[in-house]
Write a structure and sequence with these properties.
24 strands, single chain, alpha+beta, eight-stranded mixed sheet, Heat Shock Protein 90, 20 helices
Length: 656
């Protein structure tokens, strides 16, 4: 061979996604050999799949297919006569009208070697040629040529031997999948009525690839012409009746598929099947041919050097430009089916948004983005995609607001802004309100659940967990993961909180006590003080089971609160990082006992000198010794006050 074959092979690595390219190249060579001359019309190409000797592993009742190690391709084309052999012997042959002449180099990038045997007739005599194509400097090894006496048919056998280890796991293992890949790659040839009959044999199981082609296309192929400036293209629109969604644009050069685009890039609806007039599912495949693609394909036919699509260079076309022109034609050709899918997609998105009001404004400001969300996504994955669009909208609003506000310097500018940018005002409000709406709905649902818990005489644990998770510190819980707002909105902005944790484990108290306050809160430190980090206040919350009236003197919640206050004051106070500081003796403590005002509890309150709240649904007192304000709040009061604080919000969303 008139080149350093080993060096040529080492120039580039075949991508793993192109593992079957060597097989495709061998098949196309066979097709072209048959086109030159064949003993039968149409010709015949046989493909034997050779697997490793390893035993298949049991998998869910099926036997796993052994790895493919060899392919054997046999045809009855013209064979390796002197002209064809000489052509094979050159790295860049111009013998064939179409092609770069180096496709065979891909054989040795994925396989150890190729063994070729060809019986052909030349000058009235039968000859048998054998040689190996190997990764050596010469490339051709063990060549022999002899005359033979025969009356049999001619043949050429190409054995692709020893699929390299790192390529094996990338090789399609099922014969039918390989057949479909052959159809994809050589689709243009299958459109020809004289296409050779291609048969795959996998350990005795045969697939006629041509029959599969007819089965999956139903003969429904429509051709269209496309021109982009000076470049002409031929398009073949094909309906594929396969059980796999496969809506693709296949870019072909020299009658082979080189690369593809998903149609859903421009038509998101086509990430799924379409339905024909009989209700049968099909995918769309578009095969693109053109001299522009033939001229710009690389040597290995694995990529196409598209242009930038600049109108100043009429002989150049970008891949995006070509794809968009094709999808525009597809949009027109399959308008009815695509519109039906589009309606289903939008309906699914609208249903999702109706359950998640925070995204409602996207229907107005980002409808095109929503249309591109695949309809096959699960609800969890759909929320991720919708959230991304929401973030994009919020960023747009921030940028737009900043760009406008930087020009406002005085009241006159502000008045002009008010008039000119009403639309921006509306957008800002809508984007903000969407989040607020979802949070308000969350509050309404929490209060509805709280009401049910009270009516069903739920456990103290259930009520506590609804307000704040048990046995958690505030650092472990997000702002939206608790409902302290039910008691007081300000409680959400605390410094340190411990829920259902013993004093012994609460760093801020350094107490040895095993008593377990329901909720203990240390509010933020004062910003300006000479003391080292004194807390602004401390909050104690104690829950009791709804309707409980079996308290003993030892279980008196008022006594419990006093005991907890002593532990806080007498303990060696520390911050949440464990550093000690003096606890200010005048630091206020606010204590809340959340319970039903049963007969026994009212007696405890009166005995302790507590006063009735003006509303009549609770008691209050102040303990001078602990600088502690205590309030006994009924569950009804908590519910009523929470609803009242949120009433205007509920009314705005028609949740009352």
């Amino acid at each position: 061979m008139k080149t350093d074959v080993k060096g040529k092979i080492n120039e580039k690595k075949l991508a793993y996604s192109n593992t079957l390219i060597p097989l495709f190249e061998a098949i196309v060579n066979s097709i072209q050999a048959i086109e030159e001359d064949s003993a039968t019309k149409p010709g015949i190409i046989g493909i034997d799949i050779i697997r490793s000797n390893q035993t298949g592993l049991a998998f869910e009742g099926n036997e796993e297919l052994a790895e493919i190690v060899d392919f054997i391709i046999k045809d009855n084309g013209i064979g390796f006569n002197e002209a064809n052999y000489e052509s094979f012997n050159y790295a860049h042959s111009t013998y064939k009208k179409a092609g770069k002449g180096i496709g065979r180099f891909t054989w040795l990038r994925a396989f150890q070697r190729a063994e070729i045997e060809s019986r052909f007739k030349e000058n009235g005599k039968w000859n048998l040629r054998k040689f190996n194509f190997e990764q050596t400097k010469q490339g051709i090894e063990k060549h022999s040529l002899e005359q033979v006496n025969t009356t049999q048919e001619r043949y050429t056998i190409v054995k692709l031997k020893g699929l390299k280890e790192d390529y094996r796991k990338w090789c399609n293992s099922k014969a039918e999948d390989i057949a479909l890949k052959i159809i994809e790659h050589a689709f243009i040839y299958f459109l020809n009525k004289n296409c050779p009959r291609i048969v795959i044999d996998d350990n005795g199981q045969q697939i006629v690839v041509n029959d599969l082609f007819q089965l999956f296309t139903n003969g429904q192929v429509k051709t269209k012409a496309l021109k982009i400036r000076e470049n002409k293209f031929k398009l073949s629109f094909v309906k594929l009746y396969s059980n796999k969604v496969d809506n693709k644009i296949h870019y072909c050069a020299d009658n082979r598929e080189v690369l593809f685009d998903k149609i859903s890039i421009d038509i998101p609806e086509l990430d799924n099947f379409l339905l024909d007039k009989d209700g049968k599912k099909f995918s769309i495949a578009v095969y693109v041919e053109g001299e522009y693609l033939n001229q710009n394909v690389n040597e290995e036919r694995t990529s196409i050097n598209f242009g930038k699509g600049d109108i100043q260079f009429p002989d150049q076309v970008s891949q995006e430009e070509l794809r968009k022109a094709i999808t525009d034609l597809l949009q027109s050709e399959f308008e009815d089916q695509i519109n039906q899918l589009s309606e289903k997609r939008i309906t699914k998105v609208k249903e999702f948004v109706s359950q998640h009001p925070r995204y409602k404004q996207l229907l107005k400001y980002k409808p095109e983005k929503l249309k591109k969300i695949p309809s096959t996504l699960s609800e969890e994955k759909m929320e991720i995609e919708v959230f991304k669009i929401q973030q994009e909208l919020e960023l747009d609003v921030k940028k737009e607001t900043k760009s406008v506000l930087k020009f406002i310097e005085n009241e006159d500018d502000m008045a002009e802004f008010d008039e000119k940018h009403k639309e921006l005002y509306a957008k800002i409000i809508e984007v903000g309100n969407s989040k607020l709406s979802e949070y308000v709905i969350h509050r309404k649902l929490v209060l509805d659940l709280f009401d049910k818990l009270l009516k069903r005489k739920a456990t103290e644990k259930a009520v506590h967990s609804l307000v704040f998770p048990l046995q958690k510190l505030s650092d472990e819980i997000g702002f939206e993961d608790h409902n302290l707002w039910m008691l007081d909105e300000k409680l959400a902005y605390h410094k340190y909180l411990a829920s259902d944790i013993t004093f012994k484990k609460i760093k801020a108290t350094a107490s040895k006590s095993k008593d377990r306050p329901d909720i203990l809160i240390f509010n933020k430190p004062f910003a300006f003080t000479n003391d080292e980090k004194p807390y602004e206040s401390v909050v104690l919350i104690e829950f009791k089971r709804p309707m409980r009236d079996d308290y003993t003197d030892q279980e008196n919640p008022i006594s419990q609160i006093n005991k907890y206050a002593r532990e806080i004051i007498d303990g060696d106070a520390k911050d949440k990082h464990g550093r000690e500081f003096d606890f200010r003796k005048n630091t206020p403590i606010y204590a809340y006992i959340i319970c039903d005002l049963t007969k026994k509890l009212k007696a405890f309150a009166k005995d302790a000198g507590y006063k009735l709240l003006p509303s009549g649904d609770g008691y209050f007192s102040f303990n001078d010794n602990y600088n502690m304000y205590i309030e006994v709040m009924s569950f009804d009061k908590v519910m009523k006050d929470s609803k009242e604080r949120n009433r205007v919000l509920f009314e705005k969303l028609n949740l009352t």
